[in-house]
Amino acid sequence: MYKIGIIDTMNEEGLKLFDQKKNFSYEIINDLSRENLKKELPKFDGVTLRRGKLDAEILSKCKNLKVISRHGVGYDNVDVKFLKENNISLLVTHNSTSTSPAEHIMFMILNIYKGREMFDTMVREGNFYKAIHLNINDNFELFSKKILIVGCGRIGKKLIKKCLGFEMKVLVYDPYVDEKTISDLGGEKISNLNEGLKILDIISLCVPLNKDTKNMISFEELSLMKKSAILINAARGGVVNENDLNKALNEKLISFAGIDVFEKEPPDKDNPLLKNKRVVLSPHAATFTKECLEKMSEETVQNIIDFFEKKIASNKIVKL
Ligand SMILES: NC(=O)c1ccc[n+]([C@@H]2O[C@H](COP(=O)([O-])OP(=O)(O)OC[C@H]3O[C@@H](n4cnc5c(N)ncnc54)[C@H](O)[C@@H]3O)[C@@H](O)[C@H]2O)c1
Fold first, then answer.
1. Over the chain, what is the mean pLDDT?
2. CATH topology of domain 99-281
3. Catalytic annotation, pick one of 94, 116, 278, 284
4. Catalytic residue among 70, 236, 242, 299
């Protein structure tokens, strides 16, 4: 019998997959505190992980642990060095976690480019014709705008398609993806990030958070952008330096931002971005659609079953 710990809540569609398996039992762990994880996790052969942080100290208590199945694709909440040294596998939801984030990025871009709730408010407040008298300088077409997609993985690739649907010009910065792959998708590879920053209208970060991408976009990079530029971060907090972004917005070095992820989640009440009117926010919710959450929970559970049944696909296993 394989004992599986389900760390954090997940859609029940995934959990139903265990019902068909006689050799798997599971337990849901809702208390994500370090103390509780240290106490509860040692009994499991495998765990699924949504929120919650698994550091080396917690993992060192888990003598039976053979696999962690992430509910998602980012794994900055796991000590990967420990996993590597101790031969613990890490699985990600390779198939289900890119459509909704790419759509969410489009939602944020459109939201900003089409005036947020301005028109909705006018109609509700009885100001139907107010828009006619306004100087509309903040609403834009996406047609022919240049987007720079930083990171051409699962989400970046989906985003290219969506942007091309809006007849945008797509630039891509990803040193690990070759020119042909990008041009076959309809994008143009940019080798020098700073050159791309100078010409973009929209930038979307689609990279993992690691030591190379931490603060990848700071004040210096923001200063290179056009004053009309907008920035979308639905990757991870920390890829964009929050204080620098807030400063750049206040100094009107760039025009707007869409932020789904924060350096600290939930953000502190005094996080300046929460009060900045030039930012559209969402609570790390880029995957929060009915379809995506169902598919992610199913893939998370199926991955751990496939791992123990020795039929896990190689693209689900993170190369540590
Ligand atoms: N907001 C959300 O709810 C949400 C949902 C899913 C994923 N994410 C985040 O988005 C990230 C990307 O997801 P994905 O599935 O596309 O990942 P992925 O691993 O498929 O793609 C990441 C891409 O980034 C590139 N990259 C790595 N370092 C880079 C660098 N320094 N400069 C430029 N490119 C670099 C890689 O070559 C790769 O192509 C995840 O790591 C995760 O943190 C957030």
1. 96
2. Rossmann fold (3.40.50)
3. 284
4. 236
Question: Would you list the domain boundaries of the chain?
Answer: 2-96+290-316, 99-281
22 C-alpha vs ligand 1 centroid, how far in Å?
36
116 sits in the region (left: phi over 0; alpha: psi -120 to 50; else beta) called left
- Pocket residues for ligand 1 (CB within 6 Å)? 72-74, 97-98, 101, 150-156, 173-177, 206-209, 212-213, 234-236, 260-261, 284, 286-287
State residue 70's pLDDT score: 97
CA distance 219 to 204: 16
Task: Please state the atom number of ligand 1 nearest to the C-alpha of residue 176.
Answer: 37
Distances in whole angstroms, Cα of residue 145 to Cα of each of 232, 234, 268: 15, 20, 34
Answer whether 17's CB lies under 8 Å from 302's CB. yes
DSSP string, 211-253: TTTTTSB-HHHHHHS-TT-EEEE-S-TTSB-HHHHHHHHHTTS
13 as an active site residue: the answer is no
pTM value? 0.94
- Does 236 participate in catalysis according to the annotation? yes
**pLDDT single digits (tens) 79-89:** 999 999 999 99
265 belongs to the catalytic site: yes
Q: Are 243 and 265 in contact (CB under 8 A)?
A: no
Looking at the CA of residue 234, tell me the nearest atom of ligand 1: 1
CB 194 within 8 A of CB 224: yes
| Residue ID of nearest Cα to ligand 1 atom 10 | 235
Between strands 279-281 and 24-29, the pairing is: unpaired
CATH architecture for residues 2-96+290-316: 3-Layer(aba) Sandwich (3.40)
Backbone φ and ψ of 72, nearest 5°: 135, -170
What tens digit of pLDDT does each residue of 57-76 get? 999 999 999 999 999 999 99
